[in-house]
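subagent[fold] <- orchestrator: predict structure for attached chain, return tokens only, no commentary.
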Amino acid sequence: MAQTIRPAGSRHPAGRPATGSLFATDGKPHRVQDVLMVVTGVLGVLAFVTAMFHHLHLISSWAGLIGILTGLYGQYISKTTWERFGLIMGIGASAVGFYLGMAHGGLFGGVIT
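subagent[fold] -> orchestrator:
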């Protein structure tokens, strides 16, 4: 909230210049968080797309479940707003794919009788 209110020319209390952007980064690399964000996004897209096909419910439900779990862990260790934004988008797509996959047959539908 403070990033959107603070004028772009003001200084950060630690002496760093304020960026005035919602997606401000701290200027440090966060490789683990970035990898988790990408993995969550890929799993989310996979789960969302395969959920549109009834016979692919195993892929959509498992990809959605793993995407939700990796996204939640990524949220736990995330450092910047950009990482949190990407993770939330991936978690949302994973959740939609997971729920539709569960509705179409679930995690073990047809495999275990």
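orchestrator: received. Logging for downstream: Residues 28-104 form one domain. The chain is about 60% helix and 0% strand.
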